[in-house]
Amino acid sequence: MASMSPVTPAAAEPRRSTRLLSNTKPADADADADAEAEVERERSTSRGGKRRRKAAGKGTGARKRAAKGKRKEPESAAGAMEVEDAGSGINGDVYPEEPDSEEMKLIEEEEQADHGEEGSAETRGARKRVAPPRAQRRPEASADHFVGEPIPDDKARRLWPSRYETKDSDSRSRRSNDPEEEIGAQCHYTSACVDDAIFNLNDDVYVKAGPNEENYIGRITEFFEGTDHVLYFTCRWFFRAEDTVISPNLLEVHDHEHDQKRVFLSEEKNDNMIESIISKLNIIYVDPSKTPQERDQLISNSDLYYDMSYSVAYSTFANIPAENDGATDSEVASDISCEEGKPVADPVGSSDARRETATLLDLYSGCGAMSTGLCLGAALSGIKLNTKWAVDMNEYACNSLKHNHPGTQVRNEKAEDFLALLQHWNALCQKYVVHSSNSSGSDLAQMSNDDEDDENEALPNDLFEVERLLDICYGDPNKTGKDGLWFKVRWKTYDPSHDSWEPIDGLSDSPECIKEFVQRGYRESILPLPGSVDVICGGPPCQGISGLNRFRNYNEPLEDDRNKQLVVFMDVVNYLRPKYVLMENVVDILKFADGFLGRYALSRLVSMRYQARLGLMVAGCYGLPQFRMRAFLWGALPSRVLPKFPLPTHDVVKRGVVPNAFSQCLVAYDEIDDKRLKKALVLQDALSDLPKVPNYQPNDLMENRINPKTEFQRYIRLSRKDMEDYSFGDATPSPKACQLFDHQPLELSTDDYQRVKQIPFRKGANFRDLKGVQVGENNTVEFNPHIPRVFLPSGKPLVPYYAMTYIKGKSPKPFGRLWWDETVPTVVTRAEPHNQIILHPNQHRVLTVRENARLQGFPDYYRLFGPIKQKYIQVGNAVAVPVARALGYSLGQAYRGALVGGQPLFELPENFASVGQAAATASPVGVVEK
Ligand code: SAH
Q: Where does the record place the region Disordered (predicted)?
């Protein structure tokens, strides 16, 4: 049985775990050394305990420069999304080609471009607010004063004990320049007179900001005379949307807007001189589940309103529980503590909620790793999450998903077409289901595609008669050049080979068929309707944020078509309004253009009135020999509990933290926390039970398995049933225990195979070990002038030119061998050894699809489909299954109404990484909150 221990408080800036593991050198040792040095640099700038949001103003160093030069992960979204043509060879693939110089150059430039860019971002998650610097204060010149008697000493000491702690009296009375040091108090008051106006505790006020800045907004929580005899008030800040991580730029994005009257209550406070109070304003709390009309009525007489809290840590926007909603002055020191995340209405979850079911839509599903993991994790918390719908434009990925989730409606189409289809489908359901009595063929006129050409008209009736409709789509299935609504038709007396897509207005003489199709489709929920989806998950590709600088739209990232899917994803959320949202993406969405796209995603969710929380998770921390950091964004309706992020289970070195507003989003333990983390996994833990395979391995099924050797291997080999994977319903046709799928490597070209055979079986081996190469100054490779160049039978050089020049000859990656005691930085979509370390430790081949799948935490029963390169793409694109599983557990807990409370992180149950259902049943998985 697991236990929970208290975790990082939301407002504190934790010192993240950055220890180095001595015996677990990652494959890319040089790059990692850089990264480690960087982490050290990063740490030294962010150390110093709490970085409180001291208030704004000049001269306070409100903005810090970010650390420079982060390490780039060897993956690009562009590479990640590549779709290559099938050719000959294994599964119809061609041998990997020699990369041309252009390809190598592109990758190289990409790496360098990325290095140059990082570090430009400013710290801007939360504008700081401060009174004028202390040195400028002249209390004696001010006519402002406290009013009435001081609060009795014993009461003041009880309410604000730390203000009265006797410290070194010298330092108390000295005017400290340390903005972090708490100011000691002589006595406290309940009112003050500033510019002839009276202000009381709990008043909401405008506070003077820096030049050219809008006034700040805050709530007075203390009035006190400092030991330095200055008159202070303590202010708890409200944030306007543009003061939060959402940032002012987002107010210019025209697909959504923020209510000008809405502010967010934070936990951030600091002390300012009472002269900086400008005037009172009226801010009311509004329950976020109120309808817009109710809200409008409530706020009509107030200046501003708030319905959620905001915290820089994990960029959290969350509910404020009803009992803490107000600014009442009943208790002098009503120091509201947000217990965020609690549902404010319609609470769900009860102890007998076990096996509650919920529906999931997986957008940009790929082969389904993310939803698979979510479902596995949710099951462990007692929620039967069912991937009801999945959408991906890649046919092979859809085939994989279909095989592994036979009950899922898998839609092989573009997400933008899917959204249009949903809108049409809703209209059809309204006509034929909700108002079915008065539907008729003439209604079709309204649904028909605009300006259809004659070529799209129905086929002559005497030849073809519709038997029934089989499917529906929006788009252009017949490549006519126009998008519209189409039905797939089975023709009477014709076999399925004659099925065809027909436009809706070509079917105007078959209204009954449409009606019958829509009614059946509605019954079977072939498509989601607004409000019918519990959870939407997905990783919209943002290819416009990687690649060469000259191709990236830094100023307007949303204008780049390659980033449009982020908008589409949010449009789908807006249309369907699921209870929960989980979006995954590369960390670059928080880096590129000062994190514009990440901010946009948060901004959309918040403007749709979702609670939101952002976290950066490292896959290795959940029990994989792979680093892989990714960004995850939760969204939850105000009526639900906002999920937390699951703390790591494994002790992995964190490399490269985002150096800007998102630096407080890393999901990790504080360095100081007592934690029981398991040792990081290495390659051997994950792969040592896999049979030997040659470079050419034509079969995707092997029958000779040896026994598992590690806990990881035992877990990854569990059956569907034992993992509690419901996707096959009651039938659980897991492969037989002896069967192993997809243990095939991408076959090396003849030349590359010759080269690989000469790379020794040794840790750290790579092309530098080939004959004729020597390492010169600055770790740069050069040809040994005394050794004649060696040529392969094909006439090509043994040591290819691209390897010598890659990253100006400094890279150890070309033809690099992995070693058993290493972790890989990130499993990518390509399997060529030319510019990445992907050779097996002691076999002359690249890692197989299954080996990559293991490193991504796919259960062995999960089969992949398509040409081999497509399988690598599906695996490389995936969300690491254990990460999704941990998030699924968190989702399940939130869904059940558990894990309420202000902490953004929680501890997973003990042995979570390896617990299967059998074990879970014997000792139910649960969380004990401390
Ligand atoms: N979450 C997935 C991986 C997603 S990778 C997993 O865990 O397995 C992103 C996917 O988006 C790719 O499979 C790609 O085919 C798909 N994709 C890219 N553009 C798309 C679009 N416009 N519509 C639908 N799918 C798209």
A: 1-183
